Amino acid sequence: xxxxxxxxxxxxxxxxxxxxxxxxxxxxxxxxxxxxxxxxxxxxxxxxxxxxxxxxxxxxxxxxxxxxxxxxxxxxxxxxxxxxxxxxxxxxxxxxxxxxxxxxxxxxxxxxxxxxxxxxxxxxxxxxxxxxxxxxxxxxxxxxxxxxxxxxxxxxxxxxxxxxxxxxxxxxxxxxxxxxxxxxxxxxxxxxxxxxxxxxxxxxxxxxxxxxxxxxxxxxxxxxxxxxxxxxxxxxxxxxxxxxxxxxxxxxxxxxxxxxxxxxxxxxxxxxxxxxxxxxxxxxxxxxxxxxxxxxxxxxxxxxxxxxxxxxxxxxxxxxxxxxxxxxxxxxxxxxxxxxxxxxxxxxxxxxxxxxxxxxxxxxxxxxxxxxxxxxxxxxxxxxxxxxxxx
Length: 391
What we know:
Distance between the termini: 30 Å
Number of strands: 0
Strand content: under 5%
């Protein structure tokens, strides 16, 4: 199916939004530790509060989409991000840097679920294809922002703040001129929108299963950026080699789409099955990597992990969109995005505690067991979705 022009603009907007934030996020700890002379504990605390701000932004952005529509929600989030990045350029000492960072997390958190919900509303028949396009845009944004950020920071951190602002200005221009779409977003009373009402009980249970599943997957996935990253250094694998793992991850996501397309097409009518395959591939990745003592095995593990995420990540917002009752599309995208953020936030802490107490092998085993529980969540989700369909 040919993607509508309006969805293309949402994809471009998402790429600009993520590129802007990706200029900054890989360098946050370095800037706070090396430039502002704050401890790693303080830097970690700031990033945790930033994650909390993002979760609140996700939930608020999704709810506002349902009540105000996508355009207004995105413009409010964009205004918060613009004000924060402008102030960041003038006041980037302590504690202002931390304050603007948390504000950026909050504003950016509002934008993402609104874009997902808007894409689902603009192209209701797009299914996984819609969310896969946005997923690719996110990865492109991360690749461009993170790769460019290092080079720009070597010149001056001030240029990072300027580049960050320019990307949000470009995003604001695209959002202002292209996102004012005529969507049939019905505003309902707060009572009718309550997920705890009897009529929404099955939807609520299905949503819980989906959120737990998504959060678990992120707890496991984020180990590659935390405990596994540290493990590679203990094995005398260079930082350059470790960075190459993520370069391969980004390239594969963009170029391997045709390779998995026949499988995706086979399971087109059952996105839950796609997710099941993806989680099973995650398990294989952790099993293989648990034996790694040299770089080549880590590379094989990363390739397997990347194939798994290509099945799972686009499937979750697609299921959330199809699951959402009328008037709840934004809220449902907010909930699943919050679940991802929570998984990213607690993953490094949980993985680090397991490694410190029991060692790396137990961490790999723990992640495999968690992912097996995620598979149970898929069956629970499938059960509730079938009950909803039978109503």
